[in-house]
Design brief:
The complex is a heterodimer of chains A (about 220) and B (about 800). Chain A is of the alpha/beta class and about 220 residues long. In chain A, a hairpin with a 2-residue loop joins strand 1 and strand 2. The longest helix of chain A is centred in the C-terminal third of the chain and has 17 residues. Chain B is built from 26 helices and 25 strands. In chain B, the strands form four sheets. In chain B, strands 1, 2, 3, 4, 7, 8, 9, 10, 11, 12, 13 and 14 form a twelve-stranded mixed beta sheet that branches. Chain B has a six-stranded mixed barrel with strand order 17-18-23-20-22-21. In chain B, strand 1 and strand 2 form a beta hairpin. The chains are: A alpha/beta (about 220), B alpha+beta (about 800). Chains A and B meet through helix 2 and helix 3 of A and helix 1, helix 11 and helix 15 of B.
């Protein structure tokens, strides 16, 4: 479902090209659980952002569900994006002024889901993540693990085909991290959602079924 | 979706109370006071438009050309109206108004002086729109001695809710029958009356005397047929001079032609003498419109600056919304929505503030706005218009700026890169500073000019001179003479003079004289009136040459003139110079016996013109010079004496300084409005500056912290931030100075006696803005400089 071909990304500094990504060829099928690894500055997040359509490469082509992403008009691309991709961040990035319930609801607002249906979907999600009792709390009133659960719930609410996670456990302690990884595994196997995560931790990477090792913007290893 | 946005807007509002308040307060002040100005402008523009046929009603006015000067009069001659209707098919109807002097009216024991009285033709109600409460428009002014009165006059004489039609009002001579009661003439009418008397009361006998074309006494209005071109009509009136007026005026080289003014333009565009009411001025409309617009604009700029200042706090929300699928358009709409909402709240608050300040504004501006005028339908539209304007203008920049944030960079924490367009914001600040400076300079110049006028030596002593007028319509000279003797015996009364005019009195006549000069006798229109020998003493007018009037012997031959007259005719030795009445072949002449020092007969808007005074005893306008001490007691004594002689007349008096000052009321009013608004503009600008420095310091918090860690002192940090604004205010001064100089130079030219432009208002105003700006700017930067640097570096 995801085909990256000859993807490169560079910045010009003083006339020389500084490559962040170079000649990335990557193909990801439906239902995969992929971990992208590599040292700091190896281009992991950039790659994830490109896959997530938040960033554009300097060169190369990207097909998502058969569509050439960067040839699409902005509106079409947003449409493709919001129907199919959910994003999870290391720093959770919840809207501080909204409650748990409202945060989870937000993506649905941008997809014109009807009020009653929205209610049902959010209620379902709260139930599934055992957060019914916390629905009226604000992010600042939750622990990090709980905030990340809200972040995941928000990413899943619109039933995306792909879940992108940028070091989802980076700000969590190891017990919370494990819980999140177990959850990912479950989502991947039960809901058949493709997951691509960026991680530093070997242990977390093991949860996936493929590891992509990046070094200096190139794919070093592609371990099945 | 909408609900979600409301929630966000509301919670953001609450969370950032200080900023939100600043935002709303700035907008509220801006909106409130520009609304006041808009009301004022709307009212000025609405003059006479309440007449249903307003677009077809024109006033015919007279342009009189003499050799040396032109006089433009709002009045015309008696036969003009009927002639126009008879000879010009495009004239559907005409009406004439003849001003009547102040008259005492009586109903039983209810007696009052009335001032706004006109004789008018019965055709009036076919042309002008007046609401009849009682009586019939067709017949109200047909019969002689019919009188139409306004509602408030009717209530004054006959009480509320009583029928007035059929009752009578008495003057000393006559009896008038009330034939109709009409609603009070709207304030926005260029001609307001309390009473209308049928013209047939005044015009008796034959009116076809060709000599009637020589006297300019009445206002003439015509109702033109639909589709008539007024300019063409005006041209068609040119031959009237040859036909009717040349026989009278040609010998004196006086030419007359008529002008045709649409009535809706009289209030703002007419510049004639003998206008029935105080006029407005189009230039003030432009100035006030500009002030209102800039006030709103400054408020909007503040909103922009304050909102973008908060952008860092909103950045994360924006990024997340984008990541969760919001398009840029949706975000733009969200922020526009928020600014519209803020503008809406500000407008609501403004309405409250307007209601609170309505009375004050009325007393400053001389308008009488009521709740009804504020809440009329067109103003409701206006309010919505303002919500849209401020919401969209104020929200546009933040909306597009904020929504163009790149989510990836924000979520990664590199916020400070999203700094927006610094130059745009600087331009906006310079604009605000310039406007504030211009307004401050203008206020200053206007005020110093007005106070100069107040203090200027007028050539007479205007203080403690009380004027009373005997106005019974009968010959009261004997009574006046003995009353004046009684006045003179009162302690506290220093001097008593009488005259038929006084400085600042309206309608001083301009007569044509044949005057001896170096080049033989020349004809010239000269202002003149009668005074007695005590007049100069009572008013403190100084003698330059010759002698004062000495008594009745001076009645027929002697005149006194002012210095301007001496200069005008180039008299080396004024005494003994002769003045004749034109056309008088009897050999009689007037001889100059004395020259008095120039004094300002008219307001200081006019240069001192030649003035000629005749002698008359016991005139009906009495000037009493009172002692400054025990003024109140003296007035009481004067009243007691007055009552002894004229028990039937109410005791009404005026002080000369008030009367003379009243000529500047219009400019003073506008000056006050201007002053109030320049202060407000500065306040709003400062509010904005407060927000802007908040923005800058927030942006530079990290830099400030690092500098502090490296050893910069608080003062150094504060001056680093403040310095920017000093530069901006200097640039603003460069823009403001020429603009203010241009406008003020033009304005000062209205006055023949003016202060001229001095540099002081410019420099002090600029300094005031610079200092205010510096103080405001240092507020936030000091706070930032004093905060613990480690703390802000940790959170980075």
């Amino acid at each position: 479902m995801i085909q990256l071909a000859k993807i490169s990304k560079w910045y010009n500094t003083n006339g020389t090209r500084n490559f962040v990504l170079k000649d990335i060829h990557l193909s990801i099928g439906e239902g995969e659980f992929i971990s992208i690894m590599g040292p700091s500055g190896s281009g992991k997040s950039t790659l994830l952002n490109i896959i997530g359509m938040l960033d554009a490469p300097s060169e190369g082509s990207y097909h998502f569900l058969g569509e050439s992403v960067f040839d699409l008009k902005e509106k079409k691309r947003t449409e493709l994006y919001k129907r199919n991709i959910g994003f999870i961040f290391q720093a959770y990035h919840l809207i501080d002024e909204l409650t748990v319930y409202e945060n989870i609801e937000t993506p649905l607002l941008y997809q014109d889901v009807k009020g009653s249906e929205r209610k049902a979907m959010v209620a379902d999600m709260l139930d599934r993540f055992n957060m019914v009792g916390k629905k009226d709390l604000f992010p600042s009133q939750l622990s990090g693990g709980q905030q990340q659960l809200v972040g995941i719930a928000r990413a899943l609410i619109a039933r995306p085909k792909v879940l992108l996670a940028d070091e989802p456990t980076g700000n969590l302690n190891s017990r919370q991290g494990e819980e999140i990884m177990e959850l990912f595994k479950k989502i991947n196997t039960e809901d058949k959602i493709t997951i691509i995560q960026v991680t530093h931790s070997e242990k977390n990477a093991e949860y996936g079924n493929r590891i992509i090792d990046l070094l200096d913007g190139r794919i070093q290893q592609n371990i099945q | 979706m909408i609900k979600n946005l409301f929630i966000i807007a509301f919670r953001n509002f609450k969370k950032d109370r200080w900023h939100s308040l600043l935002n709303v307060i700035g907008l509220t002040i801006g909106i409130t006071f520009s609304l006041f100005l808009i009301f004022y402008i709307k009212d000025e523009l609405s003059y006479d438009r309440y007449n249903e046929k307003a677009d077809r009603i024109f006033r015919v006015v007279s342009y009189i050309e003499e050799k040396e000067k032109n006089t433009n009069w709002a009045v015309t001659q008696l036969p003009l109206g009927p002639t126009l209707k008879k000879d010009f098919p495009e004239v559907e109807e005409y009406v004439r108004f003849f001003n009547r002097e102040r008259t005492l009216f009586k109903n039983g024991n209810n007696s009052y002086y009335e001032t706004k009285i006109y004789y008018a033709d019965s055709t009036l109600f076919n042309i002008f729109t007046h609401k009849f409460i009682e009586g019939n428009a067709e017949t109200a002014l047909n019969e002689p001695n019919s009188i139409v009165i306004s509602k408030s006059v009717a209530e004054k004489y006959f009480g509320k809710n009583t029928q007035a039609v059929g009752k009578t009002l008495k003057t000393v001579y006559d009896l008038y029958k009330v034939t109709a009661v009409v609603e009070d003439v709207p304030m926005n009418s260029h001609l307001r009356f309390d009473m209308l008397i049928s013209s047939s009361t005044l015009l008796k006998g034959d009116q076809n005397d060709p000599g009637n074309w020589g006297g300019f006494n009445n206002f003439t209005y015509v109702l033109l047929k639909p589709g008539t071109n007024a300019d063409a009509f005006e041209k068609k009136l040119l031959p009237l001079y040859d036909k009717f007026m040349a026989p009278i005026f040609a010998q004196y080289n006086v030419k007359v032609h008529y002008g045709v003014q649409p009535i809706t333009e009289i209030h703002l565009r007419s510049k004639l003498e003998q206008e029935p009411e105080e006029l407005g001025s189009m230039s003030y409309i432009w100035i006030f419109s500009a002030v209102a617009f800039f006030m709103l604009l400054i408020a909007c700029i503040n909103y922009m600056n304050l909102t973008t200042a908060r952008s860092a706090r909103r950045a994360k929300e924006i990024a997340i919304r984008k990541v969760t699928g919001s398009t840029k358009k949706q975000l733009v709409l969200q922020f526009l929505g928020e600014s519209l909402f803020t503008a809406f709240v500000a407008v609501l608050l403004s309405i409250g503030l307007i209601l609170l300040l309505l009375h004050t504004f009325n007393s400053i501006s001389g308008k009488s706005f009521t709740l009804q005028t504020v809440f009329q339908l067109s103003n409701i539209y206006l309010l919505f218009g303002i919500v849209l304007f401020t919401g969209l203008v104020g929200g546009s920049y933040p909306a597009f700026y904020l929504s163009s944030f790149k989510p990836v960079s924000i979520l990664k924490g590199s916020l400070s890169k999203a700094s927006g367009n610094v130059n745009l914001r600087r331009t906006l600040v310079v604009l605000q500073f310039s406007i504030s400076m211009i307004m401050l300079i203008c206020t200053w110049v206007v005020y110093s000019q007005l106070s100069y006028l107040n203090k200027k030596d007028l050539g007479f002593d205007k203080n403690q001179v009380m004027t009373v007028t005997v106005n019974t319509g009968e010959d009261e000279r004997a009574k006046i003479s003995s009353m004046n003797n009684d006045f003179r015996s009162l302690t506290g009364v220093k001097s008593v003079g009488t005259a038929y005019g006084y400085p600042g009195s309206p309608n001083i006549s301009l007569n044509l004289f044949t005057v001896e000069s170096k080049n033989g006798y020349v004809d010239k229109g000269i202002e003149c009136y009668n005074v007695d020998e005590h007049y100069f003493d009572a008013l403190g007018i100084k003698m330059i040459k010759g002698r004062n009037f000495a008594g009745p012997a001076d009645t027929l031959h002697s005149i006194m003139v002012n210095e301007a007259m001496v200069k005008n005719f180039g008299w080396d030795e004024p005494l003994g110079k002769r003045v004749k009445f034109p056309g008088d072949t009897s050999g009689n002449y007037l001889e100059v016996i004395g020259v008095f020092k120039d004094f300002n007969q008219k307001s200081l808007y006019n240069p001192i013109a030649p003035l000629l005074l005749f002698y008359a005893q016991n005139c009906n306008i009495i000037q009493l010079k009172l002692d400054a001490a025990n003024l109140k007691a003296s007035i009481g004594k004067v009243e007691t004496t007055w009552k002894k002689y004229f028990p039937q007349l109410p005791f009404e008096y005026k002080f000369l300084d008030e009367g003379f000052q009243s000529q500047y009321v219009a400019d003073e009013k506008r000056g006050k409005i201007f002053a109030a608004f320049s202060i407000l503009t500065i306040i709003i600008t400062c509010l904005g500056l407060l927000g802007l420095t908040a923005f800058t310091t927030q942006q530079r918090q990290k830099e400030i912290s690092i500098r502090r860690v490296l050893g910069a002192s608080t003062v150094q940090v504060v001056s680093m931030i403040t310095r920017n604004y000093l530069w901006l205010s200097l640039i603003a001064a460069l823009i403001a100075f020429p603009v203010a100089a241009y406008f003020m130079n033009n304005w000062l030219h209205i006055f023949p006696y003016n202060t001229g432009l001095s540099v002081i208002p410019f420099i002090v105003s600029a300094l005031a803005i610079v200092i205010t700006a510096a103080l405001t700017a240092s507020f936030h930067s000091t706070k930032a400089a004093l905060s613990n640097p480690v703390k802000s570096l940790k959170t980075e």
